[in-house]
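Re: your question from the hallway

Yes, I did run it. Sequences:
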Amino acid sequence: MTTSALRATDHSGLAVADVTIRYGAATAARRVTLDAAAGETVAVVGPSGCGKSSMLRAVAGLVPVSEGKIMIGGRDVTRERPAARGAGLVPQNYALFPHMSVAANVAYGMKAHRIPSLRRRQRVADLLELTSLTAFGERHPDQLSGGQRQRVALARALAVEPKVLLLDEPMAALDPQLRGALRRELAQVLTATESATLLVTHDQKEALALGQRIAVLRDGAVVQFGPARELWDDPADAFVADFLGGSRLEDARLEDGHALLFDGRWRVPIAGLRQRRSAHRGIRVLLRAESLAVHDEPNDDGSALDVAVVHQEFVGDAAQVTLRAGDTLLVARLPLGVRLGTHARVSVRSGHADLLVGAP
Amino acid sequence: MLVGLFVVMPIAGTALAATSVDFSQGPWGRGVTLDWLGYAWAPLAPAVARSLGVATLVVGINLLLGGVIAWRIARSRSLVSRAVGYLVNVPLAVPGIALSVALVGTFPALRPSGLLLVMAHVVLTLPFTLAALVPVLADESLRAAEEVAASLGAGSALVIRTITVPACGLAIAQSAAMVFALSFGEFNISFFVNPPATPTVPFALFDAYSTGRLELASAQTVIFIAFIVPVLLAIVSIQRRTRRTDP
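Structure:
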């Protein structure tokens, strides 16, 4: 077990230490280590099939763990049945009990725990108020909107006062137009809880908005785990930069006051880059869409890169253009009304890109 | 049109015969009477009681056995489960006489008590129970609801009682009604498997048509129909409700 994993097992909220999950010959998660403190929301993010939902189900006790340890509230629950773990699960489609009213759904877990009726009714009332569902207590799930169902599922999970709240793609079943408002509502509810929250999502916006810390998974392994800002500013690798921020992270070499990218074909003046120390090895340049200026002016000092224009699309307040430099695709933003030909030049806008300097 | 020709008309004809003083003189020949129904009930009553008992027992065994088998087929991907799923349907493809002879030959000791009749009806009706229950139990949304219930602290028994059984309610009602109707009216296998001294209703009807007056046999048929119609109406009502609640 790694040192960080050992530290994680001392945690009072949730600690997942070196967990491996296998389905027959296939490995869904490899030596995953992460933790969430009480009251903290940790977002687990990654592309489809990266093992994030398996991780969540393993914490809930719904899939067995092949190796490693899961601790909830300082207690080893790795081999415990789901009912004994102290976890509240909100699955992707909410899985409300269709034959029960909203109030009965919320009360279900408390009934299972034999909470006295008076206390149960009071807590249901409190939770319906917290989730703005007081007027809907007697309704059935098929009489609710998607957002209301989400809140019922959340209230139902919170009713058992779980040590860990597990949210599996909580916005995936909702219309895109509703997600912004409901994300804010969800954030408010999560702020009001003392549970450690593990939020699984493939939506980076959701992860950044709701997760105080973010774990990025790829092929069943954690690529990077840390505060949202840290991942945004100092991604561990190009995958994290691309997945979380749609950014390019390019290895660079420093020479004569320039950062040399793309095997020296692009000489970016260091003076125009924001320099930052990196926790990761090497020298890298982080390029976001707003970092790049696209033009067709000739440039002989190498500070502009010749690119082919692949695609240009309207994104509301600007146009987004996809450019190809060799095998690499770059994304830049253009003012509205600017049309490009088949080829252009791209340079870094001064003060809009980052030079990340790590240990050699 | 076809329903009218082949279902309603024969039933109406039977009712006419059952309420005619002398059907040989034509419909309602020599007047209308309910006397035949009164005469028919006394000899038929023991058979009705027996058939009701057998059908109820068959429904109960079906739900218990069928519930467990349906659960295994829906939830397990093992070869054994799949093989059981196929094997259970075999009686639908085997002629009733072959099935009856095989059962009587294999379990002769069970015949006198009527247990073999119950088992034969269970074998015959089990595929219908499974056809109703397996899709519901295999449904992903039910499994997700069960998982949530378990994560909220419910043990297996509570999950089954409060989540699984209510979700299967319509399927259970539908299969119970179907199995009851099939067992209550089953003649083919019962003819060979049932002890002759203790006839079931279809057996008694066969006897009445073979040996008694047409009016009396028709009256017994009307009584049989009166027992089975509410069950058939229940099946139709459940099927309508199922269609309404489908997404």
